[in-house]
Design a protein that fits this description.
Elements lengths: L2 H12 L6 H7 L2 H4 L10 H12 L3 H11 L2 H4 L8 H34 L7 H35 L17 H14 L4 H5 L4 H11 L4 H46 L1 H9 L1
Helix pairs in contact: 1-4, 1-5, 5-12, 7-8, 7-12, 8-12, 9-12, 11-12
Length: about 280
């Protein structure tokens, strides 16, 4: 189930007084739902809300749910997580650095050792250290690059609302607490119509919706506005976190390349002095 399909179900149930139960069953069949299947990813959350709508035995509550959920497809649009160019550039640069470092380690350093050995000169201590631990920086950079990629995938799923629990598992630890809290608030808003969630309401956003419902304010509008606001905040926080990680990886990569070049030229200067 995707958000367009949920929106279609909402249109069916918002017209419940105009069409019979048999007509509803026919309209919500797979034949009709599949028309809205293309062009949007599946969402566990949309599936959950659709089940909540369809399985509700109270027609008036179904109508209320359909009114509140009907605006979600226009609100929940796939955010722009286009980091392919940046990641591609960094991956190519990192790959070139790995190849050059390996060539330098396997072929160049032994040649320098042989040349300097004929003059009874040892390699500089710093270059010796580099020769022993050159792979450490590459491994750490590879781990950081993996973290960047996984973070982008996790945050993209969260901002697309593709999953109800996108931050579970071992990779959830790489997501900042602030983003997890924002996502939890958003999920609490979506769970507003679940009885167990309402009875445990402690969040200001949930109490606000309860007050709106109590005093007769258009709940569908407030629900949609609140979802839109929280989703926008989540998207902004996610993009800031991704940009921080990309800048961090870029800075470390530049620093490692600089240190490599600094060590790589030392034997050349020594040989130049000998000659």
């Amino acid at each position: 189930m995707n958000w367009d399909q949920l929106g279609y179900l909402c249109r069916i149930y918002s017209s419940a007084n105009e069409i019979s139960d048999s007509e509803q069953n026919q309209l919500r069949s797979a034949t009709h739902l599949n028309i809205y299947k293309q062009g949007q990813p599946q969402s566990q959350l949309a599936t959950k809300l659709a089940k909540q709508l369809v399985d509700n035995p109270n027609p008036s509550q179904q109508k209320q749910l359909s009114t509140c959920y009907a605006k979600l497809p226009s609100i929940i649009t796939s955010p722009s997580f286009d980091y392919k160019n940046k990641l591609g550039y960094l991956a190519v640069l990192f790959g070139i650095f790995i190849v050059i470092s390996a060539i330098y380690q396997v072929f160049v350093i032994p040649a320098f050792i042989e040349i300097l050995g004929t003059h009874n000169i040892n390699l500089p201590h710093s270059l010796n250290q580099y020769a022993q631990y050159w792979y450490v920086a590459i491994v750490l950079l590879a781990m950081l690059f993996t973290i960047v990629c996984i973070t982008i995938l996790k945050l993209r799923d969260a901002c697309n609302l593709a999953s109800t629990e996108p931050f579970t598992g071992m990779f959830g630890v790489i997501i900042p607490k602030q983003i997890k809290q924002q996502y939890a608030i958003l999920m609490a808003i979506f769970g507003f119509f679940e009885q167990d969630s309402k009875n445990k309401a402690t969040l200001p956003e949930i109490m606000h919706l309860q007050s709106c419902q109590l005093h007769g304010l258009a709940l569908g509008d407030e629900f949609a506005y609140l979802v839109e606001q929280k989703l926008r905040l989540l998207n902004d926080a996610a993009k800031k976190q991704i940009n921080k990680l990309i800048y961090l990886f870029s800075a470390i990569l530049v620093l490692v390349i600089y240190l490599f070049l600094q060590q790589a030229y030392k034997p050349i200067f020594i040989i130049g002095e000998i000659v």
